[in-house]
Design brief:
The chain is of the alpha+beta class. 20% of the residues lie in helices and 9% in strands. The protein is flat. The relative contact order is 0.03.
């Protein structure tokens, strides 16, 4: 145990001895002590530099001069040439530390204008030492010459492209490169030195002219264009045929005089004419018998069969047809005797083409023979009289020589009454002095015959209005015209007959109901859609009654199986009235007025009649039966009026 303690004390003593040996003897006498950051030696007090932890100039050590600027005496990184720091001597442009800027400039190692260092060799000209920022740089390769050090023949004056180490073509005169200007491949001169061709833009005018490649008229070159192979003129000056490549002045014998097509395309006339084979075919100039071209031979030819006068007999009078064709095709000759109408000035029928010597011509119009005039509709079918003299009835077609004929409406007396064009009482035409506007279209009497009974406001007479009590322009009670009196908006009659506030009753019995049938009786106010009263009736109990009905106009409607089978317009007055409708159909096959057979008489039905009358859509045979509402055997405007009035509630079909 004792030996161990002694060993440890001996080792501690040795360590203290070694520590004291490395400390300078005077260190224990300095107030401040450091180790130099440059050389590592110990120094203190005045031997410590004022600018940092290192030896001062008074220390006499080399590390001071090696790390302090010779100009500002500050410790810094120094230039290895002059010993200055880079704050005093300037920094190298590439950031290296081998020399300052002043040394670079002194030894020609930098640009004299901006100080660009030579270490960046790509920016310094090897001749003038200038950098690219100051004097520019050649764009042509690795020879490191600036623009000013090049010869004029070595560089493009526009883009500075260099020719020394490149294959760029340039103008032999101004040395501009091929990227900046067009250069003629023949003379190697650019567009600034010679005039380039405006057409192709590839060669100069002088080279084109020297090679004979320009139009003698305008100077344009033939590059990519067609030109006349004879005179050399280009297509800009004259049309050049793309087939024979000749201009209009030169291709005379090579083109058709008819269609101007090139013979190279359509071929030439087989007999040597100045026209093409296509024109021969299209114009039928080749005789089908001998094959000769009539344009070449000048022979007459039949306009119908095309055979020339050398192969057939051509009419010497008209000169257009052979005898056979003229008689049957163009009708220039009589179909019976063969006489030419043109040569003998013969009158002939415009229908059968027989001359006046072979048929009886109408002595009035001289257009048709007696038989053909009737067929053509220009002559009366009874007496064959000419309509141009006697006139024509537009109804039956008879002329004024066969029947009494009205010069105003152009109808005979029978047709005028049948078509309701004349007054049924005095016989005067409704168009006489404008009377078609003063006529009752129900009874077909004119205003002269009706006198005071005619209403000029609505065009009806009092007798007809009494039948159609719900007429929209007259009072349904007293028949006074609404143009002369006021109308009550509630009940629809004039103010003198107003029934507003009055109630009454309606009684009746429905006739014609078959066994096991059920009908529904409705009373609908005029102008409304929904019924005000409704009741069901059968064959066993056909009686019905509606009490306390407000006075006014109503539509009495009877419906079976959701289909209307009876309608009647009625007036409810101050006293109870009886109405006994009969629902037995006169013709079970159709409902009169129901043209489209949809079970109701509505706007679709009167539109069909109107279209039939104006000829835009004709009714079928099945549709004609219910369309003839007035039963006169024809479907016309009168049927249209009745159906329209039924739809608007002013008239009841079958009522």
């Amino acid at each position: 145990m004792k030996n161990t303690v002694l060993k440890r004390i001996s080792m501690l003593f040795v360590a203290l001895t070694m520590l004291i040996s490395i400390i300078p003897l005077n260190a224990f006498a300095w107030d401040e002590y450091i180790e130099c950051e440059f050389c590592g030696a110990s120094c203190g007090d005045e031997y410590i530099c004022s600018c940092g932890d290192h030896c001062s100039e008074e220390s006499g050590r080399d590390c001071y001069y090696e790390h302090h600027c010779s100009e500002c005496n500050e410790a810094a990184e120094l230039c290895d040439g002059c010993g200055k720091c880079y704050d005093c001597g300037g920094y190298c442009s590439v950031g290296d530390s081998h020399q300052c800027l002043e040394c670079h400039l002194e030894y020609n190692l930098a640009c004299p204008d901006c100080g660009q260092c030579w270490n960046d060799e790509d920016t310094i000209c090897k001749e003038c030492l200038g950098c690219v920022e100051c004097i520019g740089r050649c764009e042509g390769g690795d020879h490191l010459l600036c623009i000013e050090c090049h010869d004029d023949t070595d560089i493009c004056p526009d883009c500075n492209a260099c020719y020394i180490e490149s294959d760029l073509n340039s103008c032999d005169s101004c040395y501009t490169c091929e990227y900046c200007v067009f250069i003629c491949p023949e003379c190697n001169l650019c567009e600034n030195c010679v005039q380039m061709c405006e057409n192709c833009g590839e060669m100069c005018v002088e080279c084109h002219e020297a090679d004979g490649e320009t139009c003698p008229n305008c100077g344009f070159c033939y590059f990519g264009e067609i030109y006349c192979q004879d005179c050399g003129i280009c297509y800009n000056c004259e049309y050049i045929c793309p087939d024979c490549e000749l201009c209009c002045e030169c291709y005379g014998d090579y083109h058709c005089v008819e269609c101007d097509e090139c013979f190279e395309v359509n071929g030439q006339c087989e007999t040597g004419g100045a026209h093409c084979a296509v024109c021969c075919e299209n114009n039928d100039w080749l005789c089908p018998e001998c094959g000769e071209c009539i344009e070449v031979s000048g022979a007459l030819v039949c306009r119908d069969c095309g055979v020339c006068e050398n192969c057939t007999e051509i009419c010497t009078i008209c000169g257009d047809f052979c005898i056979e064709c003229a008689m049957f095709e163009e009708r220039l000759h009589c179909g019976e005797c063969g006489e030419c109408f043109e040569g003998n000035a013969l009158m002939y029928c415009s229908d059968c083409y027989l001359c006046e010597n072979c048929t009886e011509m109408c002595p009035e119009c001289w257009d048709y023979c007696a038989d053909c005039g009737v067929i053509s509709g220009t002559h009366c079918p009874d007496c064959k009289g000419c309509y141009s003299i006697y006139g024509e009835c537009i109804g039956c077609g008879k002329c004024g020589n066969c029947t009494d004929y009205c010069d105003i409406c152009h109808q005979c007396e029978d047709c005028a009454f049948e078509n309701k064009s004349h007054c049924v009482e005095c016989g005067n035409c409704f168009k006489l002095d404008g009377r078609e506007y003063d006529t009752c279209w129900d009874c077909m009497k004119c205003s002269d015959c009706l006198g005071d009974e005619y209403c000029y406001a609505c065009g009806g007479c009092r007798e007809c209005l009494a039948k159609e009590f719900a007429y929209e322009w007259h009072c349904a009670v007293c028949l006074a015209c609404f143009s002369e009196t006021d109308v009550c908006e509630e009940c629809g009659v004039c103010v003198d007959c107003c029934l507003c506030g009055v109630t009454s009753g309606i009684n009746g019995k429905v006739e014609g109901i078959e066994k096991n049938e059920t009908v529904e009786i409705m009373l609908i106010p005029f102008g409304k859609d929904e019924p005000l009263f409704k009741k069901t009736a059968t064959a066993d109990d056909a009686d019905y009654s509606f009490d306390n009905v407000p006075a006014g106009k109503y539509l009495l409607r009877i419906v079976k199986n959701n289909e209307v089978i009876y309608e009647e317009n009625i007036i409810v007055g101050k006293e109870t009235a009886n109405h006994n409708p009969n629902v037995s159909p006169e013709n079970p096959e159709y409902l009169l007025g129901d043209i489209n057979a949809d079970g109701a008489i509505n706007q679709y039905d009167y539109i069909l009649v109107k279209r039939h009358y104006f000829g835009t859509r004709y009714l079928t045979e099945t549709e004609m039966l219910p369309a003839d509402v007035n039963g006169d055997g024809t479907v016309n405007q009168y049927d249209y009026i009745l159906i329209k009035r039924h739809y608007f509630g002013t008239f009841v079909i079958g009522g």
